[in-house]
Structure formats: C-alpha cells, structure tokens
Write a structure and sequence with these properties.
By secondary structure, the protein is of the alpha/beta class. It has a single domain, classed as Nucleotidyltransferase, domain 5 (2-Layer Sandwich), CATH 3.30.420.10. It is 40% helix and 18% strand. The chain has a five-stranded mixed sheet. Helix 5 crosses helix 7. It is globular, with a radius of gyration of 16 Å.
C-alpha cells in the first residue's frame, strides 16, 4: 500500500475565484511506502487553457511564472503521466484538505477524462491532523509548527507543499493507523 501525497496549485484571483473557474497549474506529489518513507516524486506545471493568463495574485501567491505554464503540457496531456507515475499498486490519495481531489474532479470533467475510482480512497490529512491533535482546523504551516518541523521550500508550490505534508503524514500516520482505521472521504 502506497500513500500518494498530492498538492495542487491552480489559477486563482483575489476576487471571483470559484472551483469551477480554477484550473490546475501544478501537480506536486510524493509517494510514500508502507513505512511512510518517500520513494518517489512527481512534479509538473500544467498549462491552463480556459483562462491561460495567470493573475498577478496567482503569480504572487504561488511564485509560478507565466512562462513556466506557457511551455507546460495541458492537463489532458499530463494527467495520464501522473496516473502512470502512481502505478498499479494499491494506494490512498492524500492531501491537506479536500480541495485537491475536488479540483482533480473538475479538471477531469472539463477535459472529458474519467475521474479515477481509486481517488475515492482519499485521506484528508488536515482533518486527520486536527482530529488527532484535538484542535480546531489549522493550515499546513501551523501543523508543521505544532510538530516542530521546519517548513522547507516555497509555501504554495505544489511539490514543496507535498513534501511538507508528507513530513506531517510520517508523524501522524503511524499513530492514527494504530489507533483506528483511517477515514476516507472527499
């Protein structure tokens, strides 16, 4: 059993951002094995096609530049590569919150790509973390602080956030997997 820790970045605007308007512009993911060790990584920029111009807000938030997405593959080109990278082994799709599987669903629908059935095996690490800590919901950066783990890389970059979320998973998964069955939900 593998754990696919994914973090997506998407087009966004200071005002008027709705999930239906957003498009994925980066897929960052790490693959953890049953010992919660990183065994592989996936990172790709994705060229948006509905609204191809990144907003100033989006560039500032993510640090992703227009030139990086202009030369990137489209979602319909890169998603099959991502699925190939995940592989045939059993896995849980994991993310910080429920946004990522929902955005995958939107982009799959937009591009007439079947939404992977296995994505329903989703672990919301954010919810697992605050339930385990018995605290109110918090962001990834705050969770790292609570666990005394330094944030590495650039916050709001898919691959860097995926690596940081994997550090949280490595701490909490052994504890929550021993205590109870992980709840899967979107």
């Amino acid at each position: 059993m593998n754990f696919i820790i994914v973090d997506l970045e998407a087009t966004c605007w200071q005002k008027g951002t709705s999930p239906q308007r957003m498009e994925i512009i980066e897929i960052g993911a790490v693959k953890l094995n049953e010992d919660f060790e990183i065994i592989d990584e996936f990172d790709s920029f994705v060229r948006p096609v509905v609204e191809s111009e990144l907003s100033e807000f989006c560039v500032e938030l993510t640090s992703i530049q227009q030139t990086e997405v202009d030369t990137a593959p489209t979602f319909s080109e890169i998603f099959p590569e991502f699925m190939k990278w995940i592989g045939a082994d059993e896995y849980y799709l994991c993310s910080w919150g429920a946004y990522d599987p929902k955005q995958f669903m939107i982009d799959c629908e937009r591009n007439v790509i079947p939404y992977p059935e296995k994505f329903s095996n989703h672990i919301n690490i954010k919810k697992e973390f605050y339930t385990w800590q018995e605290i109110r919901s918090c962001g990834m950066k705050r969770a790292l602080q609570i666990l005394d783990i330094p944030l590495e890389g650039t916050h709001h970059r898919g691959i860097d956030d995926a690596r940081n979320i994997a550090k949280i998973a490595k701490v909490i998964f052994p504890k929550i997997l021993n205590e109870r069955k992980i709840t899967c939900y979107i």
